[in-house]
Amino acid sequence: MKGLKRISLLVVLFIVFLIGSVYAAEGKMELVKNVEKLKPGQTGTVELKLTSTDKPIVAIQMKIKGSENVEITGITSASEKWSLTAYNSKNGAANLTNTNGSESGSIAKISFKVKEDTKTEEASISVEDFEVSSIEYDYVTISNVSTKIAIEQPKTPEEPNEPEQPEQPNEPEQPEQPKQEEQKEPTKPTDSKNKVDNTIIGGKIPHTGSSSAIILIMAIVAIIGLVSYAKYKKID
Hints:
Immunoglobulin-like, 6-stranded mixed β-sheet, 4-stranded antiparallel β-sheet, 10 strands
């Protein structure tokens, strides 16, 4: 029994060792952008590069993703060593192979377009979910990689300032119109003949009849005197 336990323990340790050997390989990738800044509607590319690996890589399976303001338009192999064997534009899944194995260098070029209606100032491209195989190891661990591209929003043209309206000259003051004198109606002459004096004077009315007779007698006497004097002068 003791011998069986020892054998079982050795088997377990061997399996653990095998598992550790299979998954011991690691590699590193990076995304290199060909432009730092784009405007809405413009296109660009990023290049997937293998920077290091423990053993040569012969096959890569991955997924390409872009931010909401980016449309992935395609992927191509970056060199003759690598061949694009499959690509699904709906979910971004891609497979590449290299029969001779590669330890570094460019693997693929990913093209994209910034959406025309985007209002943000940044876009991102990422490659995730790597499944990598090497010649000697069944699996190589590679972490997700990503890069960012600045978006230059078009400047809104400034509206030209409205020219200042020239000040309107003050209207000259109208000279005051001379006041027209009120035309007075001419005073109608009083017709003394027709005017009836309604003034009532108090007291007794004088008797003027006797005075008028005396004056008449005196006038007749004067006339007779003058006539007589004239005749007397003629006789002389």
